[in-house]
Design goal:
Layout (H helix, E strand, L loop, with lengths): L3 H6 L5 E9 L7 E2 L2 E2 H13 L8 E8 L13 E9 H14 L8 H11 L5 E9 L9 H10 L7 E5 L14 E5 L2 H16 L3 E7 L11 E6 L5 E6 L10 E3 L5 E6 L5 E7 L5 E7 L2 E8 L6 E6 L7 E4 L4 E4 L1 E7 L5 E8 L4 E6 L3 E6 L4 E9 L2 E9 L4 E6 L2 E9 L9 E7 L4 E5 L2
Helix pairs in contact: 2-3, 2-6, 4-5
Amino acid sequence: MVSSNALAQKKKQPVNRILFIFDASQSMLGRWQSGRKIDIAKKLLSNMIDSLKNIENLELGLRVYGHKSGYPPQDCDDTYLEVDFLQASSAVDLIKKKLSVIRSRGTTPIARSLEEGAKDFPDDNGRNIVILITDGKEECGMDPCAVSRLYQKKGIILKPFVIGVGLEESWKASFDCVGRFFDASREQDFSNILNIVISHVVDNTTVQVNLLDANRNPTETNVNITFYNEFTGLAKYNYIHTMNTYGYPDTMVIDPVLTYKVVAHTIPKVSIDNVTINPGKHTIIPLETPRGKLEIKMKSKINYKYIVRPNGVDTTLNIQQINEIEEYLIGQYDIELLTLPRKKFYNVEISPNKSTVYSIPTPGLASIILPSKGYGGLYQHNGEELEQIYHFRGKKTNYRLTLLPGDYKIIFRAIAAKEYIYTQEKSFKIRSGKSEMIKIY
């Protein structure tokens, strides 16, 4: 049973809003199969929106350009919101009535219409869709692509749909950057495209992300999944992947208007680009995420951390704490434990559905007493070489250092000693869980 708190956390579904931006410029008087473009487009749009009348949670608006000022002269401000947003049940008849009296007269301010159209939407949380119906190209010197990008990145509108009505072939490519372009070369195409576009808005569309294990079965879960808007790069959805009560990856409702980059935040992360969602259908997105577990065990009062890197690559993938278990994609890794001295493991193999465990002995405590302030440090043998792991900087005479078990050497010279021959050395051993006092005379 789902708790009331869990239900309260579910996001309220935003209002779906469609703004039709309709081209009534002079070029729409041109012939197109059975009649003039303007008449055919008005008729087909009017017929289609009838099917939207009884859809709940849907608001419609209509902006028209090129219909109030004759050409010439050119009026680049000839774009008007003719029907403000209303519930579909009320808006449909008003839009049809307005379309019936529109006449083609003027120029084609596409960018200005997109800009003003973005401002038409209310400020509250809504799913704002623009459907631009046009037969021409920008004639007012603005950049429709730049305007579309701006308002998408601001999150005011989703990627617009552009329906080209009998467009010249050379103009079609210019709309790809404005939004998702559909070429209606024939009347029947226009009707089919309108239905496809509307299905993106109103049809229930579901997605299932399959996180595949080493056997390509969707058993991996409890991973954060982010859907990024491929166009703007902004995160659209963040969900924690889970299994439903039947043991299958849970179903998510994802907006089919956008194209996505889907990222599984495993360590390291896995992603897939250019994911399109089929409206009204169930889409399965597979991601290869076979994982195994890693743990470093140590009995210590200090909560040490360690760096996990890809094998042979000086890049930090994760900072993990001792005695904690973390999952990683299968493969090889390098580990650097931030103890004194640092402990390193190379070519650590993470295997599918298994735990890789390293046990580190308990550190010991070294109490170092120097005869005076001075310089030098603490060293450990690294093969035949001495490696300095701690510096004496002439600030104090007592040091308490927690060290891994092993053999060490102190090399020291007092500040007052002005000749190298007064350098002193002393070797000592640290045993697991034991304390040692080391005095330099």
